Amino acid sequence: MHRALPLPSVVPAIFVAGLNYTTHADEVKLPIPRFPVFAMKSPNALLYPSDAPAPTPGFGIQRGDTIVVPRHLQQPEDADYEGEMAIVIGKECRNVPATADAVNDVVLGYTAALDITSRRWQGKKGGNQWCFAKSFDTFCPLGPHVVAMPAEDACSLQIVTRLNGETVQQDTTASMIFNVVELV
């Protein structure tokens, strides 16, 4: 049985794995990477559900139910989104061995995430600024809670993204190129 836990009240960093699903690599016609591709989001991008416990003040985490797209990004096809599984690290760690036991020791659990990106800033027109493109306020909704489970159970989760009630993305973590153990 998996336990439901509250979202963390402090998030010092957000790392995102880019191009980590075979379906996405096929969609954008890019080769499968040999190693994980990482970018960062500012913690200011976090958006917790309005009914989530209050995060620690001063860390930029907002609560609410509305993603705010800045006016200068409100052009067709600029703000893009991808439903993701977020790996929530529960203790300070570095150089974690790539074993299920070591990863399970540091991972608190998993939650749903929406990775919103300004494609203009991420692309050549914006100077390939991945961190900036992903870090606008509210560009990383999480939750509603963290589910504690072993890494091996996180390899077959369904990910469904809906926009205005319509399913716009559906995949499974079995399509991940690099699994949880390899990413952590």
TrEMBL record:
Similarity-based family: Belongs to the FAH family.
Q: SUPFAM superfamilies given for it? A: FAH
The protein's GO terms of the molecular function aspect are: acetylpyruvate hydrolase activity; metal ion binding
Q: Which domain of life is it from?
A: Eukaryota
Swiss-Prot/TrEMBL keywords: Metal-binding
How is this protein named in the record? Fumarylacetoacetase-like C-terminal domain-containing protein
Keyword Metal-binding in the entry? The reply is: yes
Does the record carry Metal-binding as a key word? Answer: yes
- Species classification: Eukaryota, Discoba, Euglenozoa, Kinetoplastea, Metakinetoplastina
What are the Fumarylacetoacetase-like C-terminal domain coordinates in residue numbering? 14-184
Return the InterPro entries for the record: Fumarylacetoacetase-like_C (IPR011234), Fumarylacetoacetase_C_sf (IPR036663)
Looking up Pfam families in the UniProt record yields:
FAA_hydrolase (PF01557)
